What we know:
Layout: E1 8-10, H1 13-25, E2 29-35, H2 41-53, E3 58-64, H3 84-94, E4 97-101, H4 149-152, H5 156-171, E5 175-179, H6 183-195, E6 201-205, H7 225-246, H8 252-265, E7 269-277, E8 291-299, E9 302-310
Parallel strand pairs: 1-4, 2-3, 2-5, 3-4, 5-6
Antiparallel strand pairs: 7-8, 8-9
Helix pairs in contact: 5-6, 7-8
Keywords: ATP-binding, Cytoplasm, Ligase, Nucleotide-binding, Pantothenate biosynthesis
InterPro entries: Pantoate_ligase (IPR003721), Pantoate_ligase_C (IPR042176), Rossmann-like_a/b/a_fold (IPR014729)
GO molecular function, one term: pantoate-beta-alanine ligase activity
Amino acid sequence: MAAPSEPEVIRDKAAMRAWSRRRRAEGKTVAFVPTMGFLHEGHLSLVSTAAAACAGPAAIVVSIYVNPSQFAPTEDLATYPSDFAGDLRKLAATGVVAAVFSPPDLYFRGSARRPADASGNGAISCLDEAGGDGHETWIRVEQLEKGLCGSSRPVFFRGVATVVAKLFNIVEPDIAVFGKKDYQQWRIICRMVRDLDFAIEIIGSEIVREADGLAMSSRNVHLSCGERQKALSISRSLANAKTAALSGNNHSQQIKDQIVQALTEAGGRVDYVEIVEQESLVPVERIDRPSVICVAAWFGKVRLIDNIEIQVPS
Ligand SMILES: Nc1ncnc2c1ncn2[C@@H]1O[C@H](COP(=O)(O)OP(=O)(O)OP(=O)(O)O)[C@@H](O)[C@H]1O
Ligand SMILES: CC(C)(CO)[C@@H](O)C(=O)[O-]
Ligand code: BAL
């Protein structure tokens, strides 16, 4: 039976788990795409990847949940874009999404608030450290979460790993799909799944770009026209760097310097430019093994990330 074109909206954890178990009992592969909503073609490509990955009958679940615990208090939780009705229309139009899991809240809120201590521990995420009998269990992927986005977003990967583990325990998927646009996130989830023996196959899906090269991202909506034009320097400089690396200029420092210069000249503020091994995310001095160039830069008030994988011919 084909999936209904109108996805079922599920808001309750127990109902979600029961739904998945019923689908599996019917012999379906449960494929899961976690998102924070305000969907674009990048998200819809994850749905296509999920559908293609299921050999037989499939039940595709998309979650829409803006996870507070991955945002530091200084970050943009309050202004994160949303359009639930629009998201549902887009998912219905795919014709393959069977359920949308959109819980109001996934955390146990404590009865008492614990103030931040002198070292800053305590109120360090927008979950505001529930305190008392509230949520206090966190997953850390200790090495992979250091560096890249982990350096400037101190609670980000703790929040992502924890909420993804919670979502996995609720949705109980066979397969889950993550975008390579969030490269470090994808690698961290793969590592968590391996280390904690989740029986879930993780699939990394290719970056979807606008026609002019800008990586699609929900936050792009906050770019002014001018900022958006300037932000094209990210994908352009990454593409130039890849061409240079494949034609013999494989010195990481030189390549990083060129990218920093291009972004700065365009008016961006660089958070980081790093060249790392694809799986370990350890920095490389030369691009002489499968590597990925990762960039985060601010254009106006918007922090954008992008990357490009490089497989050197052997
Ligand atoms: N352009 C893209 N190509 C492929 N996957 C993407 C793209 N944009 C987002 N994704 C993936 O979609 C999933 C949900 O991401 P999310 O809802 O945070 O969207 P986003 O566009 O990345 O938003 P943000 O503006 O927060 O970066 C993640 O696995 C992410 O990697
Ligand atoms: C994986 C995720 C849904 C966890 O909140 C989020 O980080 C995202 O959308 O990439
Ligand atoms: N796409 C990752 C979600 C975030 O930046 O918070």
